[in-house]
Amino acid sequence: MSQTLIRIGKWLRRDLRAALSLGFLLLLFALSVSAPIVAPHSPTNQDVNDMLQEPSAVHPLGTDDLGRDVLSRLIYGAPATLYASFLAVTVAILLGVPVGLLAGFLGGWIDDAISRVIDTLLSFPAIVLAIAVTGALGVGLTNGMIAVGIVFSPQLARLVRAQTLIVKQELYVDASRVFGASLGRILWKHVVPNAIQPVIVQVTLLLAVALLAEASLSFLGLGVQPPQPSWGAMLARAYHYMEIAPEQMYAPGIAILLTALAFNALGESLRVALDPTMKRR
Amino acid sequence: MLTRNRLRLIRRRLLQIAPVIVLATFVVFGLQQLVPGDIAVTLAGDNATDARIAEIRTLYGLDRPFFVQYGSWLWDALHGNLGKSILSGEAVLDSIQRRFPTSLLIVGCALSLSLVIGIPLGILAATHRGSRIDAFVTSIASLGVALPNFWLAMLLVATFALNWNFFPATGAAPLSAGVGKALHYAALPAFALAAGGIAEVARQLRSSLVEVLSSQYVRTLHAKGLSPTAILWKHGLKNVSVNLLTVIGLVFNRLLGATVVIEAVFAIPGIGSMVVHAAIHKDFPVIQGVVLALVMIVIGVNLLIDVLYTVLDPRISQQ
Asked: In this prediction, does ipTM exceed 0.85?
């Protein structure tokens, strides 16, 4: 364990981009956990005398159309955002990884059948399918993100399948089979650890896509429901007051952009760090 | 051009795609199985009487077994009958036909922008690998991928429509109203949509061109004394053009999805706003109709690209 930590420490010292993005994401996580302490005001407290105010000492980022403190809503939006991204990606992992493992390892008609299903699901424009599934499940953040997770799962399944096909050829898998290990044990002990690295990279990149999907769904009114704060929903409100208060749309948009950039940068750095052909010897 | 080998490959591709089409229709119809509880209650709307719910159940044939329902839905769909909107009563296919050209115009403009801007950026980055230009293009591409496109759309509206009045803030004009006017309306949505496309095209082109330019045969060409420009135009881009085809397909499909969100920002009466409205109000025939139309277009485009691929790349048909 401590050795892993030392290796991660060395990696972060070498890779400034990874260190910065990880730092930003940890900060965001800390903000999410401590939102009630850090936020200067309640995120849902309305004040009709204080609508669409410019930034001031009391409201550092101003107030929205219902007089709610924008900074507090931004801070309370962070947990919603992180919850949404991780929920979607978890659903995608739970669905996609086992399916990909089985298709790749078992081969034959099972693989053919699963691969056709993956091809089919990948033919749907992702966001449209997510909208349709949300429509069926019912609007709301959790349903929306389960929908996004379902839509992402074939991407992971395809990747895991390809990795499994490579690992399956290895001698240690044969050896394990000769020793009489069960299918579950072979997959869990030998295939998963050796096929997982590209999946980790892909999952990190998917977190960014999930984040953007949450923002889009909430913007369209299919995700987070009022009065709960979410960056996408904040932009949806800002949209209606664009002519009189254009500054309302800056903070949530920048928050979404920075978080998506951080997930992407971390993913790219992980790709370089985990790729054995790119490792410095 | 079309040797027997190629025809055989194309035929095989068609055979592969058949189950995908069938499965896609199954997924589209299966969407309504995801509705928690009794779908007839959902379709009947709030405060519906039991009689109304029963009426809905018979009207949509919901009392029949799932596969019978699927079969009759598919049969109707094959005959161009996608049902009627629960909210407006309009035939779904008619709405799609009326609204699709608007969406297609924006997607088409966005795709053109993605290529016209993305290709030169990708070439510049690949030929100046490791330089400041490369770093600049790579940063632009990272930004384009992470930028929420609807937020970019809002920024564009605030700046170019509300502040400077260069473009209309909302709405769309059909091509029949004049190409100039239609493009004028489509410009901002297309640009907002294109940001992701530009990033994708530049990224993919850069990486495939870098691979070609660092290959053995390009080194040989250098050794033979061919100028870098000649190598790029005669050998580099020729090899990359096939990859570019794949990227075009990918980007087109992505834009087709992304336009849904962009249409909301610009209040454009395309198929995007149609499916969002339907999803909020659980208007299932509309949801299913739009999703079916879109997935069939994507499958069609993918097939077209595969066929072109087979025709353009001699290496494929020799395998």
From this structure: yes
